[in-house]
Amino acid sequence: MLSRRNGILFVEDVSTVDIAEKYGTPVYVTSKLQLEKNVEAYKKAFPNAEKLYAVKANNNLTIMKIIASNGFGADVFSDGELYLSLLAGFERDKILFNGNSKTDAEIEMGIRAGVKFSVDSFDELRTIESIAEKEGKKIEIAFRINPDIDPRTHPKIATGLKESKFGIPEEQALKAYEMALKMKKVVPVGIHCHIGSQILDPSPFVLAMQKIGKIVAEIEKMGIQLDFIDLGGGLGIDYEGKGAPSPEDLSKALFPAYEELLSNLKAEPKLWLEPGRSVVGNTTILLTKVNAVKKGYKNFVAVDAGFNLLIRPAMYGSYHRVVVANKEGKEEELYTIVGPICESGDILAKDRMLPKVEKGDLIAILDTGAYGFVMSSQYNGRARCAEVLVSGSKTALIRERETLADLLAKQRIPEWI
Ligand code: LLP
Q1: Summary count for the chain: helices (H), strands (E)
Q2: Which of 73, 305, 371, 381 is most exposed by smallest CB count within 10 Å?
């Protein structure tokens, strides 16, 4: 998706200099071709699995529509993600409503929409039963189980450890299914876990499959034959240019464990996955302009995007590759790329060797399609930036840049002020 032509960084067949001129900066730029390649890789690696796109990774409607039109379902974590998924055209029976703290209103919305639920607590199970009763509807559910597995990733994105807030402890799993069996409106059809994100080694997924497989076999003895086993998302991507497992690598690693699991069952539960980052992560760059270069104890490159637009480096210490987009040259200076936010933690990239940078240059921050714009804010009174889609030599604005007036959205001033 990225190439250099006469020294200038191109996204597909479009120059980043032209994009900056036409749409301004900062701007997220997504390659449709790369998105389609990623979707295709999952379809090829997992032809028989249900692939649910984790909407939290990037909820731009155009991007969601492209993914939905490829037959993916959706993993949604809120009323808003459900709303967007329905608009984007994801099929209702392939939407799973996840979440550890759903409001009654969200549960009602999901029930009315006819989607499936991943149930995270006994309280939630009882709430679903009572709302479904009121609505006169049967609801298909899975339980999210916490399998206590260390995915060996950043602690803030490890979600399947004992101390994590997600899921029902594995030792309470059978009790959960027993309870569901006694209910009138709730139909247990699946089991769910998600162990973490940015996982670069398939073996924790295999362990998850084995642990969940044991529970599924126990559940069968209770007379419940499940339709699906959802192993969640979490496949990592190659942020550092050192390689990362592909969907195919994951498929190859999982297949024997899945076969083994099936051999112990009467039913043939389908495999479900919920990839987010590995579908959208490497499709997008954040293009940002240099406002100032300051030399001192450190060489700072101050750009017009900060942690208001890309919080991953500040929040998780995440590494994103950075390149100078408008010119090529020998990497001769060590720079730290910082944003305009009034916090010393507003660092996008630390100590990077780059060609000599000057005011007005364009910097591209790579692999920002997942957990980029979706985690943005208006902190420091900064309107959010635009998003652009590139396909071949075509470009389209897929989210307008906010204006200062958007900072007022929904604000009210009481008449007594
Ligand atoms: N399914 C569930 C239930 C999840 O909680 C998540 C991510 C996914 C699927 C998708 O995982 P993925 O394939 O994208 O790894 N903001 C953090 C990542 C948070 C992940 C939260 N859950 C980051 O920027 O690294």
Answers
A1: 11, 21
A2: 381
pLDDT tens across 26-52, in order?
999 999 999 999 999 999 999 999 999
With a Cβ cut-off of 6 Å, ligand 1 is lined by 54, 56-57, 75, 98, 157, 159, 194, 197-198, 232-235, 274-278, 312, 316, 370-371
Which residues are CB-contacts of 19 (< 8 A; sequence separation ≥ 6)? 11, 27, 29, 287, 388, 390, 395
Alpha-carbon distance of 305 to 326, in angstroms, equals 17
Helix (H) or strand (E) holding 337: strand 333-338
Integer Cα distance of 49 and 25 in angstroms? 40
pLDDT tens digits, one per residue of 286-309: 999 999 999 999 999 999 999 999
Q: Are strands 139-146 and 168-169 parallel, antiparallel or unpaired?
A: parallel
How far is the C-alpha of 102 from the C-alpha of 90, rounded, in Å? 21
Rounded to two decimals, the pTM is 0.97
Ligand 1 pocket test target in 51, 81, 197 with most atoms within 8 Å of CB: 197
